[in-house]
Amino acid sequence: MFRSRSMLHLISILWLSALFLTGCAMPHIRSTQISDGGTTESCADFFTSLDQQIAEAGVMDSGTFRVKDYPYLRTNRFLASFREEAMDREAFATWVNHMQALDQEARGYEIANLPADAPPLVSANNRDELKGNVVTCGNLLKAADFQDANPRIEELRKEVNAPDEYSLLHRALGFYPLFSVFVSLGVDNWHAEAIKSFSTKPPADWSTTRYVPEKSGELPTSRQIAQKTRQDALGIPAYAPEDLQALFRIYAPAWEVQTQDDQDKIGAPFWTPEGMLGVNTESPFTYTLLSFTRFGKDILTQLNYIIWFPSRPKKNALDIYGGFLDGVNYRVTLDKTGEPLLYETIHNCGCWYMAFPSKGLHVRDTIDYAESPLILPTPEVNPVSEFMTIAMTSRAHSIQHLYPLARETQSQSTVYSLADYGLLRSLPRHTDGQAGMFDRNGVGIGSERLERFILWPTGVLSPGSMRQWGRQAVAFVGTRHFDDPYFMDKIFMETDF
User: Are residues 139 and 215 in the same domain?
Assistant: First the structure.
C-alpha cells in the first residue's frame, strides 16, 4: 500500500509525463527519464500484488484480455486488429491509451468486486485510492516503457493478442473432423427451419408482451451526430457522452415476446439473498454496449442492445437447450454517415446467429467461413417514426419476426429502461459487497446447459451457456466470433448504387 509521500511523488512524475502524453495533437511517447531509484519497480510490484488478490478472490473480469508483461493494458479483438498496422507516434499512443482504458475499466469492476474482508491493500475504505493508484502507476509505467527508440514498441505488438474461444485440445480429443460433419447437418437443418418460419411482418395470433424504450425528448438524427463526431488517430469515432446516449435511444428496438409466464418476461439480473443469480421481471431493462468493427478501410460503430430472461424453461429432464438464464443481443452497425448498414441478433450464448443486411450491403458469392451465417430479409424501418421490432417465441425465445412498428403505439406497451452493460460486471450482493454475473471464463454463473456434454468436441467452452460480451463464439464449425473485427468483409460487399 502506498504511503502519502510516495503517492505525491508518483503524482508529480505523472504530471510531468502527462505534458507529452496528452498535451499536443501528436503526443510523443518518450521516457520521462525517471531516476527515483525504484518508483517504477514499486508500481510493477503494486500491479503484481493487486493481480494476486484479484485471482485469489476469484473476481477476475474476463470481458477483455490481459497483455503479457504490460499489467496496465488489456485488449479485445477489435484493438488487437491494429497490431500489424503501420502507425505514427500519435496513432501508436492512441492505441496504447485505448488498451489502458480497457484495463482501468476492468480493474474498476475487479476492485469493486473484491470482498470486504480482503487484506489491507484492498480494504473496503480505500477502493477509490486503489483505483487512483491503478491510473497513476499505469501512466508511470507507460511513460517508462515507450521511450523514443525503445524496442518495447515492437515487443508490445507481439504481445497484443485476443485468443479465440475454441479449444484445440477438445477438438483433437473429440475427433472434430468427423464430428463437425454431423454438426454441419444440424446447422443446415436449423437454417432451413428458421428461413421457413421467419417473417418481416408482425406475428399473428400470438399472446405477447411488447416492450418499448422510455420516451425521449427531441433527438438529433444519427447523420447529424456522425457529421460532428471526430475520429481519433486510429479512425475510431470519439462520441460525446450525450451523442452516444442519443444514438442508443434513436435505434433502441421494441421487443415482442410470446408470453406464457414470467420466464418470457425480460428483466434485470440481480443477486438473491441465497447468493444465486435471478432476473427481476418487475424491472424491464435493455443493456447497451458500444463496440466497433472494420469494413474495408472504414471503422464502423456498433450499438448492442442486450436483454435477459430468467430462463429458457426445459421441456423435460433431457432437454439439452433449456436452463437458467437466457437472453438476446440485438446489434445495429452504422455506416460512416450514421445510417444503419447491418442488423444482427444472437442469443447471449453466442448461439442462433442471424444477420439482416440493409440495401447498402451485398452478400458475397463465397463466404470465407466454414459455417456460413444465416442471412435473412431485412424490413425497411424509419427510426424517426418506427421501432425495429424483434418478435420471439415463448420459452425458447427464438426470433421469428423482424418488422417496423409505429412509435405512436408506445402507450400500449410495457416501457423498459436503458442501462449500461457494465452494470452486469459488478452487481450488488444482497448481504454485502458486489459480484459480476460472469465467471473467470466469461460464462454466466449457473447458466450451464446439458448440451455441453454433447457439443464439447466443437471446441467451444460450455456450449449453450450464457457468455460475457467479447467471449461469444458464434459457430460450431470452424471459428467465428461475434466481435470478429473482420467479419463484415468476409460476408458482405458494399452495394454500388
Answer: no
